[in-house]
Amino acid sequence: MKWTRLLSLLLICTLLTGCSCRVSEESFHVSFDSTAELRDYLAWTEDRVALIAAHRGGPEPGYPENCIDTFENALHYAPCLIECDVRMSKDSVLVMMHDESLDRTTTGSGRVADRTLAELKGLRLKDNEGEVTSYVIPTLSEVLQWAKDRAIVELDVKRPVTPEAIVAIIREHQAEAFTVIITYSTPTALEYHDLNPELIISASARDMEGARYLLASGIDPSNLLAFVGVYEPSDSLYALFHAHGMRAILGTMGNLDQKADKRGYRVYSELIRNGADILATDRVPLASKAIGNHPD
């Protein structure tokens, strides 16, 4: 049975045992008072409700990637982690941009790192169809200000931005209770953990060997999400993470999203039944249908 928005909101809050997060009735905003609440919200339980990670913020026609208005639009569909990308300007300001180059997603050209913030703010963002919009490149500070009492942001940090710079700006904005850091190796996860043990970290572990290495790292599993790759992993990998109370993020961007384009949202429903807890997707509207329709 398809949930109404209000019913789904109430059910989500009911199922998040021990979590006192608040959820808006008009869109899927969430608010946490502490990192402990965020950990409770993201922990795996047998009655967990699946979540969506809006890849690059959930772009659609008219809504470019890595744009605050796009993030807000994604939250109209489902409870979403807002996955977004961090780069550095020439004058060392952290800005939201996936590509090293400005050419694909803005009216500018050349490298992000060769432009000052003032120059970047003079550009306009393009949507994925190449249409120029009225939106400008946001800074990470602006995103963290927007996200407070609204959303969880998942930061995909691009080189040469350092863990120290990311941890410092999160601390400056007191954003630990609504931020997740994406890492691609256990050593990098440990760097962030050593800088701030309260941070929630998404760490890659695509097979049993990688999972055991991550679990032996010394990072408390309650501070971890496990990214299991862009293809379905073995049942045993899901079971191992779930046994440690960890949610598994499955990247559907690419092949699995294309499969859902052809076969419908039930592709996502099956992925959830098989063990995926968070779907990192480029198809937020379509995947959102599975959140309310998959049989528990």
TrEMBL record:
InterPro entries, sorted: GP_PDE_dom, PLC-like_Pdiesterase_TIM-brl
Positions of the GP-PDE domain: 50-291
SUPFAM superfamilies with a match to the protein in the record: PLC-like phosphodiesterases
A Pfam entry, by short name: GDPD
Protein name per UniProt: Glycerophosphodiester phosphodiesterase family protein
